[in-house]
Design goal:
- The chain is of the alpha/beta class.
- It has helices at residues 16-43, 81-91, 100-112, 118-132, 137-152, 158-169, 182-192, 221-234, 251-256, 267-275, 301-317; strands at 67-70, 173-181, 196-200, 202-205, 208-213, 242-245, 259-263, 279-281.
């Protein structure tokens, strides 16, 4: 396996753009959580009956300076949220055929090579963002609600959902932290009854996408910066907080908190977690562990994932 070392993404420390992306994600997350809280108060719906999970040794009930941060793809949801979102966009003819090859190549490059060539990354991002440019944020949010029901609702890991609920029952806030667009992440957080979401922030003016990102995709070090910024704004003690992820790319975020969990971990994260005596949970069984979904390329946004889905659907039909 040593010969495949060149395929592994290089670890990199936080940059100024990582800090900017993290701070932007934290600000957007706080705004969205306030909106979600208002919606829940207005709805005042009866809670659905569910089996009571076993009493966990953690979290500590009543510790309001603690919170939980959950990665999304393959941690909370089976597969990549961007991939599922892209399937819905393609179904609604959001993509044009002439754009498929260009974005499929961008997605494949990151999935297979995992090489962070700055020029290649910038070109891929610009291409992806050009598709949402000019579309209204409200349009993507409305479509996202429908796509959640069609492709995502049945892919939530029950075990991870129980972990999140344990924090909520203890009176703590629970946030999704993902490279997916913040709009998609916010929809999922709302549907799961979580506090809110930190995600990649695409710039918009008067409710219309400009085709630019604020900072960079919320991936790797940027996730850690987002959690750090949100913790400072919320008055949290990170040593009392928990974080959950399946990917070694999230080691910076997991290392920030006092209670890191490896959920459905990849090989590198499993090794890292065992060496540091982190808690592990794996909700996959047998070969299913290797087939939980197609990973989204970091930072390509909804379009790149959607293009991969479009190509797959096109091939099946032909």
């Amino acid at each position: 396996m040593a010969a495949l070392g060149w395929l592994t993404p290089r670890r990199r420390s936080a940059t100024a753009r990582s800090v900017l992306a993290g701070e932007a994600a934290a600000e957007a997350a706080r705004k969205s959580s306030l909106q979600l809280e208002r919606e829940r108060e207005e709805a005042a719906q009866e809670p659905a009956e569910a089996e009571t999970p076993p009493e966990p040794e953690f979290p500590v009930v009543g510790d309001v300076r603690a919170a939980a941060f959950f990665d999304l793809d393959n941690t909370v949801m089976q597969g990549a949220s961007i991939f599922h979102f892209g399937r819905g966009l393609y179904k609604r003819k959001f993509f044009q055929r002439r754009e498929l090859a260009r974005f499929a190549w961008a997605q494949a490059w990151f999935r297979i090579a995992g090489v962070e060539d700055p020029e290649h990354i910038q070109e891929a991002r610009d291409s992806a963002l050009s598709i949402v440019k000019g579309h209204r944020v409200s349009e993507l949010m409305s479509i996202g609600e429908e796509i959640y029901d069609e492709y995502m609702a049945d892919r939530i890991w029950p075990g991870t959902r129980d972990l999140a609920q344990a924090h909520l029952d203890a009176g703590q806030k629970v946030w999704l932290v993902t490279a997916a667009p913040v709009e998609t992440a916010t929809i999922i957080a709302r549907r799961l009854g979580l506090t809110g979401a930190l995600g990649t922030v695409a710039e918009s003016v008067d409710g219309v996408y400009t085709g630019r990102l604020v900072g960079e995709p919320l991936h790797g070090p940027a996730k850690a910066e987002a959690v750090r910024a949100l913790a400072a704004a919320e008055g949290l003690d990170l040593s009392r907080c928990a974080a959950y992820s399946d990917s070694h790319n999230d080691i910076p975020m997991l290392s920030l908190v006092g209670h890191p969990y490896a959920i459905n971990p990849d090989t590198k994260l499993r090794k890292h977690a065992k060496a540091r005596d982190w808690r592990l949970r794996d909700y996959r069984t047998g070969r299913k562990a290797a087939k939980v979904g197609i990973p989204a390329a970091a930072g390509l946004g909804a379009l790149a994932g959607g293009t991969a889905a479009a190509v797959a659907l096109h091939r099946r039909r032909h």
